[in-house]
Write a structure and sequence with these properties.
Number of domains: 1
Low-confidence stretches: 1-22, 317-321, 473-486
Strand order of the largest sheet: 1-2
Shape: globular
Order of helices and strands: HHHEHHEHHHHHHHHHHHHHHHH
Number of helices: 21
Largest sheet: 2 strands, antiparallel
Structural class: mainly alpha
Helix content: 55-70%
Distance between the termini: 67 Å
Strand content: under 5%
Radius of gyration: 26 Å
Number of strands: 2
Length: 486
């Protein structure tokens, strides 16, 4: 064989090798954009928790198409890093599915809380049929379908490497900013304006991409640790990092008044937690203030403290601080429906323990317990305390599933924060994920944010960041150029 032929064969083999090497990259890129497109669907139609929202007509099929599209793309999978999340989410979905399995009449009547329903059937002379554990099979099927968006996103995250999962950070920040800007447009818009995405919503509130102001406030609270993370990620140079820092400051100053305007009292506390946690995410350093005089540095620090206070005073003076007004002036928390109904929801949880009444059954079951004097034009479709509603719906098995998640969350969170100094980029993303999930978990103690598909998939992405490891490959000096100064 001649040298020319040999060289041609080598070039041919080299081209084939380059093609084979490029295939996984192309597949990962395709999966990444499939995931982004589905997240846009979630943003436009996943901001409500009601089962009769019209956007679910396309959101759930979009989740199925997303999964099939991800599976159709060639490329490596990264299930191992996300194995715990697949197990946890799959276990909860299986628990919901098991509630739909028909049980023998004798076994069903022995379940706690079923006696009144069995007595009603006996009084009507109806033979006891085989029934599933859940009292509302149609709503439990709807709850099972609610797992489709989180599963689709989790499949998408498993189809891309950890570096591309981190690339979702700018998208999430743009999503939060879009929701905040939409909320600003809603402030002075008529009730039938197209800037409102849902017909049933908190009237007069800047709900953004959501139907519930508390969910909008929870999303805004997540922005502060994500902004800090953005400024800590590697930059092409010192000037790029400095520009990114000031852009992040500008976004934070835009979002701070929104916390007050939205009208969520819990949101103010969550935002304060997000700001403090963002400051503690990594050790403070002053690289971005280098080159300034001592007086200039003092001015910058004082301005950083004075600006949020000035915005608070301005919002109150203009009558836009709805959250503050609701906290101090307009409403007495003791008279709120959610607190008045708390003893009743605890009683329901006790009556159906340890097997629960079925996922999605809270509203019908609550109406069978609701006293006549509590009837009003307002409806109480959720317990406004997801831990209590989880026990009502799934009983002890659901509670054990939550406990398993919390143990995993604490273990991974400890790994992300210890040791505290010189974290790698993966550790910083894990820390931001811990803070974001903590905010949503705390919000679930007074509301139901994770029942919306949008916040559900945000929660999954944050958990995927927590899952990434190892955590201590590079120190902060090498991983972050330059770090953010708080």
């Amino acid at each position: 064989m001649s040298q020319v032929e040999t060289g041609g064969e080598a070039r041919h083999n080299g081209a084939q090798g380059a093609s084979r090497a490029a295939t996984p990259v192309t597949g990962e890129r395709a999966r990444f954009w499939i995931l982004i497109i589905f997240l846009l669907f979630c943003a436009l139609g996943g901001g409500a928790s009601r089962t009769d929202v019209l956007s679910l007509i396309y959101l759930r099929p979009a989740a199925v198409l997303c999964i099939f599209g991800l599976l159709a793309v060639r490329g490596p999978w990264h299930f191992r890093e996300l194995r715990a999340l697949f197990i946890l989410l799959g276990t909860m979905a299986a628990l919901v599915a098991l509630q739909l399995v028909p049980l023998p009449p004798g076994m069903w009547q022995m379940l706690p809380g079923r006696a009144p329903y069995a007595e009603a059937a006996a009084a009507l002379g109806i033979a006891q049929p085989w029934r599933p554990l859940t009292l509302t099979p149609d709503l439990t099927i709807a709850s099972l379908l609610d797992f489709l968006p989180p599963f689709a996103v989790l499949f998408g995250l498993a189809g891309i490497p950890g570096s591309r999962r981190q690339a979702l950070l700018p998208f999430m920040l743009c999503l939060i900013c879009a929701s905040a800007v939409l909320g600003i447009l809603q402030l002075n818009s008529p009730a039938d304006s197209p800037v409102f995405l849902y017909q049933i919503r908190h009237e007069g509130s800047a709900v953004g991409l959501f139907a519930n102001r508390n969910h909008q406030a929870a999303l805004i609270a997540i922005a502060f640790p994500l902004l800090r993370l953005w400024t800590l990620t590697p930059a092409s140079g010192a000037s790029h990092a400095r520009n990114r820092f000031w852009v992040a400051i500008g976004i934070a100053l835009l979002l701070l008044p929104m916390v007050l305007v939205v009208g969520s009292r819990a949101g103010m506390g969550l935002a304060a937690l997000g700001i403090v946690a963002a400051a503690l995410m990594a050790p403070s350093r002053g690289d971005l203030l280098q080159g300034l005089t001592v007086r200039a540095r003092r001015f910058v620090k004082l301005a950083g403290l004075a600006t949020p206070l000035s915005l608070l005073v301005l919002a109150v003076a203009l009558g836009r601080a709805v959250s503050v007004q609701r906290l101090f002036l307009l409403e007495n928390a003791d008279n709120e429906v959610r607190l008045a109904n708390a003893p009743l929801t605890l009683r329901i949880a006790r009556d159906f323990f340890p097997f629960g009444a079925g996922f999605g059954s809270f509203d019908p079951v609550f109406r069978t317990y609701e006293p006549d004097q509590a009837l009003s034009p307002l409806y109480f479709n959720h317990a406004h305390h997801d831990l209590v509603e989880l026990v009502i719906s799934g009983g002890l098995p659901a509670l054990l599933g939550l406990l398993a998640f919390m143990l995993w969350w604490l273990w991974r969170g400890w790994s992300a924060f210890v040791p505290y100094r010189a974290p790698s980029v993966s550790a910083l993303f894990a820390r931001a994920g811990v803070i974001a999930t903590l905010i949503l978990l705390l919000a679930s103690l007074v509301d139901y944010p994770l029942r919306t598909p949008l916040l559900g998939v945000v929660f999954v992405i944050a958990c995927a960041w927590i899952s990434r490891g190892p955590m201590r490959q590079n120190g902060l000096k090498t991983a972050i150029r330059p770090p953010l100064a708080f």
